[in-house]
């Protein structure tokens, strides 16, 4: 449930999970074909230095959705959350965040991956720890990836696997700064952002 917090729910599942490989999926993420999971698992098995791996995400309409990102800055959060995203500078900044200067049809490393669909290993979790529960809903994926990189583990975007994400951004009702007053998930997003930047302030 949202009251308990997504991060705590994922951690609870990981604590009870058996085996050496873990696939983390949001409730709104679907696996159309088993081969996409098997391809990802094979890559993870063959590359011991991979800490996190995530697929290409598409919507129900098969349109591409962003799932790999450069490291957040305070500016990227502000620009994505407000009308500034519609300015030329805002669009350039968001394109940079979303790796729009790269060929996203190729397997490559990223700073962090969308938490809607991630695969990792028991060994990695024993090394870097579970998701940080100070983040209720957001930024735990970026934080996990950052800890991977600190341990010299690779964070890999794997577009050879394609999963379907029935995406509706619960923290965005399109009113920009007004959502701080009207949208509870926007407030959670902002709180998690503040916690993230404070944690990594140095």
Mean pLDDT: 91
Shape: globular
Q: What is the fold named in CATH at topology level?
A: Spore Coat Polysaccharide Biosynthesis Protein SpsA, Chain A
Radius of gyration: 16 Å
Nutshell version of this structure?
This protein is α+β, with helices and mostly antiparallel strands and 202 residues long. Helix 3 crosses helix 4.
Question: What does this protein look like?
Answer:
The protein has helices spanning 6-16, 34-46, 74-81, 88-97, 122-128, 140-150, 179-182, 184-199, and strands at 21-25, 29-30, 50-58, 64-65, 68-69, 108-109, 112-113, 117-121, 154-165. It is of the alpha+beta class. Helix 3 packs across helix 4 (88-97). The longest helix has 16 residues, at 184-199. It is globular, with a radius of gyration of 16 Å.
Attribute tags:
202 residues; globular; Spore Coat Polysaccharide Biosynthesis Protein SpsA, Chain A; 8 helices; five-stranded mixed beta sheet
Write the layout of secondary structure elements.
Layout: H1 6-16, E1 21-25, E2 29-30, H2 34-46, E3 50-58, E4 64-65, E5 68-69, H3 74-81, H4 88-97, E6 108-109, E7 112-113, E8 117-121, H5 122-128, H6 140-150, E9 154-165, H7 179-182, H8 184-199
Parallel strand pairs: 3-9
Antiparallel strand pairs: 1-8, 2-9, 3-4, 5-7, 6-9
